Amino acid sequence: MLLRRDRSKDFVIKVRKALIHYGRLAYRRLISALRKFDFWLVLGTWALAVVGYITMKDQHKALERQLSEMQFEQRAWLYASGVEMAAPMSFDVNGLRMTFAHMVRNTGKNPAVQVFVNAEAKIDELPNPEWSRRVCSINSGDLGVSIFPGADSAPLVYTIYVAKHELEKSEIRDTSTGRRFVPPINVMFCVTYKDAATNKVGRTPYAFKLQKKIGPLWDSEDLPTNDVVLQLSPLPTIPPD
């Protein structure tokens, strides 16, 4: 009888220990499961946040792009509507003197301010994008005029030179007469301006080949304006800043 009670007691103890063991194991597995559940929940929340951020960023970029396109369509567009010699070409101590008059038209939808024409003349360089960028990068400061949409400016008159040392280097001697003449001259122009609404800088480059209408341009020979030929050279446009 006593032996049976001892066996029953041992059995109960073993069952109790087994219950405690499996209870602890189940608790650990439950905690582990909850932790895993929290991890995936956090991961899912983070993923949704990332997707939302990317979507919002894309929408913001699309809005900026639409705004930029609207501003681009509405901006001022300037080009030289007319270029002519404003005074005879002449030689002096500085070199070959050339005075031009530019008329600039605004074909855009916004007014343009600080409209200015930069220029540079060379004998030994053909029009090219690098030269146009260099001339267009000249800072005119706050100088310039304003032009409203659909309007032309008054003639913008200024003088440029082919330097004396450049002339001496490039002139060609006529063996029959001993006189020297100047090869055709390339002149790079650039209309720079600001859009009054967006304050963005615009640039319109263009170039001309300048030469005497008939025969060579002799050194030290002044040339009347009606004897000068300006031949337009096409150039790629430069987008606004």
Describe the structure.
The structure is a single chain. By secondary structure, this protein is of the alpha+beta class. The chain folds into 2 domains: 74 residues; 156 residues, Immunoglobulin-like, CATH 2.60.40. The strands form 3 sheets. A 5-stranded antiparallel β-sheet has the order 5-4-9-10-12, with helices on one face. Strands 1, 2, 3 and 6 form a 4-stranded antiparallel β-sheet that branches. A 3-stranded antiparallel β-sheet has the order 7-8-11, with no helix packed on it.
Alpha plus pi helix count:
3
Helix content, binned percent: 25-40%
Poorly predicted segments: 1-7, 41-53
Quickly name the level 1 CATH class of the largest domain: Mainly Beta
Strand count, sense and barrel status of the largest sheet are:
5 strands, antiparallel
Tell me the β content.
25-35%
Q: Strands across the major sheet, in which order?
A: 5-4-9-10-12
Reported CATH architecture of the largest domain: Sandwich
Q: Kindly, what is the distance between the CA atoms of the first and last residues, rounded to a whole number of angstroms?
A: 105 Å
Can you tell me the overall shape? elongated
Which topology of the largest domain does CATH recognise? Immunoglobulin-like
N-to-C series of helices and strands: HEEEEHEEHEEEEEE
Secondary structure blueprint with pairings:
Layout: H1 2-74, E1 78-85, E2 90-92, E3 95-106, E4 112-122, H2 129-136, E5 145-147, E6 156-163, H3 164-170, E7 172-173, E8 180-182, E9 185-195, E10 201-212, E11 217-218, E12 228-233
Antiparallel strand pairs: 1-3, 2-3, 3-6, 4-5, 4-9, 7-8, 8-11, 9-10, 10-12
